[in-house]
Amino acid sequence: MKIKRTYSEVETESLGYELGLLLKDEPKILILLDGELGSGKTTFTKGLARAIGITAVVNSPTYTIMKKYTSKDRFKTLYHLDLYRLEGVGTDFDLEEYIDGMGMIVVEWPYQVSEFIPKDYLLVQIKKMGDHEREFILTCVGIPCKRAVQYI
Ligand SMILES: Nc1ncnc2c1ncn2[C@@H]1O[C@H](COP(=O)(O)OP(=O)(O)OP(=O)(O)O)[C@@H](O)[C@H]1O
Ligand SMILES: [Mg+2]
After folding, report:
1. CA 113, CA 105: separation in Å to the nearest integer?
2. Is residue 91's pLDDT more than 90?
3. pTM of the model
4. What atom in ligand 1 is closest to the CA of residue 33?
5. Residue 19: what pLDDT?
6. Which of 88, 113, 117, 137 is the most buried (most CB within 10 A)?
7. According to the model, what pLDDT value does residue 26 have?
8. Which of 41, 112, 111, 113 is nearest to 80 (CA)?
């Protein structure tokens, strides 16, 4: 487990970027972003995306469940899911229905789906400490993210 704090939107994007650099060579990595509205989940995702060479603007996929991005060199893929609107869906959700390959999978609001318990994931819990202060608690469950959490 690792705890980090940021004091601006730019710092949160940078933290995402640093984490993304540490994870970018993992063939498949699932990152769960848990935090209240406006805590910085999408801002953090923008940094992750930049680290793997995605140049498109990453926005919250509010009207679709999932948005897929490919890096300029085409070697990296980001699947960005926002499950906010799936509240109460319960057991009907299958992540694999949205993922058609390897890559970095980022999920905002993972706990909207009660049985969403994958085997390996990196959990990022974000707490609003003030208008501009955010606390990030990073917990690696499984193998692929251990090193990243250690070195960030
Ligand atoms: N330290 C900080 N880190 C990130 N965002 C910050 C910070 N301080 C202030 N902000 C503001 O908080 C908001 C974060 O928005 P963002 O879309 O990233 O949140 P979110 O968690 O994805 O929200 P939602 O649940 O609506 O998808 C932005 O308006 C940003 O300017
Ligand atoms: Mg968001």
Report:
1. 16
2. no
3. 0.96
4. 21
5. 98
6. 113
7. 96
8. 41
Provide the CB-side half-sphere exposure for 35 (13 A, CA).
23
* Ligand that lies nearest to the alpha carbon of residue 109, given by its number in the listed order: 1
- Rounded to an integer, the average pLDDT of 110-121 is 86
Q: What is the DSSP letter of 58?
A: P
Phi/psi class of residue 63: alpha, beta or left (left: φ > 0; alpha: ψ in -120 to 50)? alpha
Measured in Å, residue 68 CA sits from the centre of ligand 1 at 21
The reply to whether CATH 3.90.1300.10 applies to domain 2-151 is: no
The rounded Å distance from CA 43 to ligand 1 centre is: 6
Closest Cα to atom 8 of ligand 1: 132
Q: Where are the domains of the chain?
A: 2-151
